[in-house]
Amino acid sequence: RKFIETAKACLKICRPYKVPLLINDRIDVALASDADGVHVGQSDMPARVARSLLGPDKVIGVSCKTVEQAHQAWLDGADYIGCGGVYPTSTKANNSTVGLDGLKTICLASKLPVVAIGGINASNAITVLGIGPPNLKGVAVVSTVFDRSSVVGETRKLHSMLTEAVLKAN
Q1: Is the pLDDT of residue 170 over 90?
Q2: Locate the Thiamine phosphate synthase/TenI domain: which residues (predicted)?
């Protein structure tokens, strides 16, 4: 119940800014809160089942570490792949890393947009985005923002740095 209430509160913040809210691992919460979608891992509900429950208009992301998993996500109707951990992370216990080479391999093999996940922070985000494949669409960060005294300050700092890097690249 608390997760659903929190999701609804987050939606009130996200919707005016047209920022989609995806719920991690919990299709029931995504449905109950009318979130914009869900992100599932390999040990969660398969993307094809999530798609059948959420319908065609919701966003579904799938965590992938291998080319085979990325291909299956595409077959199952996922909208994007979260690839990683690129680097070691404290948010998942015993999480193996794919490194930059693994990320690039999955990007080159994937028919879906890819977001890099795991251990990404202000000191390595530009390196991650610089590996080249055009379907690498972004990075996901958790600890680099939430383990700080000012979530807003860290978010603005990271956003500014990434925006500047993208402008220089173009």
Answers
A1: no
A2: 1-145
